[in-house]
From TrEMBL:
Keywords: Fatty acid biosynthesis, Fatty acid metabolism, Lipid biosynthesis, Lipid metabolism, NAD, Oxidoreductase. Substrate binds at residue 225. This is Enoyl-[acyl-carrier-protein] reductase [NADH]. Its EC number is 1.3.1.9.
Length: 390
């Protein structure tokens, strides 16, 4: 069948197997070009391994770090008539490429929030690795069922306290407009913390530690976004920020149990992923940020950020911020970038968007997440949606 993008709001319901595989291979090629990462942990787990920052982490650990990996993600399988999720194609393409260099990666597809998945994972780690040296937690999900209570929580992306009036962008039409976002109530805030906070991370680490599958010197990383004051009203000072603050306290709890370097929250830059495109204001901020960072020669996507994390931020004595986090968002938050983004922000209108921001780049990065718009891929060719080319 011919697979075309079908975009509904901030998701694309189709994905292209050849495009996704090409995307994965391009990321691998980038990492190989940078050369090996010294002292990379060798038995690595990535939760949320199939797209965005998790996929980049798995690629860097494998292709620059020489690691064997186990990944977990939630996917839609393909059928004869329907394409799979992009993550399903990415997982298969990753496995094909990792096997070519003599690795035998393991991928578990299902709900990482469930205790069944954790049990299965522990068994597979025992069989395959014995113990783990590093676990990267890179999950972004809208809903979580708490295994203890059976209660299902849905996250909301809202401000706290009072309504926020803020500029935003319709990425389909290119219209820039003011919008008022109503604040979350207490239940919604608590639900967002239950989904995107550190509860599940800590639960994973506790169960793995109890099962004795964490190697001496084991470390775990969890990714966060802090951003600049332009996005704070909706992100850091909103429900998502509350959830991210919870990561810091769970990191501390893990350090208390496993040692002073065992857990770190890592602040990363804004990039286009399935998760970030759903956040109001972030796409508008992104279109300006990408243009400014490109103009200053500081552009980074997921793979460049994670490559820099593994190469420069995981060694002994790395600088931490006041909340004991590792920072790789330093270029995004540098005065030269933020001064220029802030200068452009009040000038942004539907009419000036083309000059001050780069919507075309944003849209093309969004479509690339699903394997569309990639050079060298013939989208007019019939493909079997169940097959990822080797
Ligand atoms: N995108 C950004 O701009 C940005 C910036 C800084 C930090 N981060 C953080 O990075 C982390 C990853 O985000 P991303 O943007 O790469 O997201 P993403 O949407 O690209 O990836 C999310 C991953 O989680 C998996 N997942 C979702 N629900 C799951 C479930 N129930 N069980 C198993 N797997 C599940 C998906 O399959 C996918 O692999 C998040 O913590 C996010 O806050 C993102």
């Amino acid at each position: 069948m011919i697979i075309e993008p079908r975009v509904r709001g901030f998701i694309c319901t189709t994905a292209h197997p050849v495009g996704c595989a090409t995307n994965v291979r391009e990321q691998i090629a980038y990492v190989l070009k940078q050369g090996p990462v010294a002292d990379c942990p060798k038995r690595v787990a990535v939760l949320g391994c199939s797209t965005g920052y998790g996929l980049a982490s798995r690629i860097v650990a494998t292709f620059a770090g020489g690691a064997d990996t186990i990944g977990v993600s939630l996917e839609r399988e393909p059928s004869e008539k329907r394409s799979a999720s992009a993550g399903w194609y990415n997982n298969r393409a990753f496995e094909i490429e990792a096997e070519k260099i003599g690795r035998s990666p393991l991928t578990l597809e299902g709900d990482a929030f469930s205790d069944e998945m954790k049990k299965d994972f522990i068994e597979r780690v025992r069989e395959k690795f014995g113990q783990l040296d590093l676990l990267v937690y890179s999950m972004a999900a809208p809903v979580r069922t708490d295994p203890d209570t059976g209660k299902t929580y849905r996250s909301v992306i809202k401000p706290l306290g009072a309504p926020v009036e803020i500029k935003t962008l319709d990425t389909e039409t290119g219209e820039v407009f003011q919008t008022t976002l109503e604040p979350a109530n207490e239940d919604q805030t608590a639900a967002t913390v239950a989904v995107m906070g550190g509860d599940d991370w800590k639960r994973w680490i506790d169960q793995l530690a109890d099962a004795g599958v964490l190697a001496p010197g084991f470390r775990t990383l969890n990714y966060t976004y802090i951003g600049s004051e332009l996005t704070w009203p909706i992100y850091w000072n909103g429900t998502l920020g509350r959830a991210k603050v919870d990561l810091d306290s769970k990191a501390e709890a893990i350090r208390v149990r496993l040692g002073p370097d065992a857990a770190r929250v890592v602040a990363l830059k804004a990039v286009v992923t399935q998760a970030s495109s759903a956040i109001p204001v972030v796409p508008l901020y992104g279109t300006v940020l990408f243009k400014v960072m490109k103009q200053l020669g500081l552009h980074e996507g997921c793979i460049e950020q994670i490559d820099r994390l593994f190469r420069t931020r995981l060694g002994k004595g790395v600088e931490l911020d006041d909340a004991q986090r590792i920072r790789v968002d330093d270029w995004e938050l540098s005065p030269e970038v933020q001064t220029e983004v802030s200068r452009r922000w009040p000038l942004l209108t539907t009419e000036t968007l083309g000059e001050l921001a780069d919507l075309g780049e944003y849209k093309s990065q969004f479509l690339r997440l699903f394997g569309f718009g990639i050079d060298g891929v013939d989208y007019t060719k019939d493909v079997d949606p169940r097959v990822v080319p080797g």
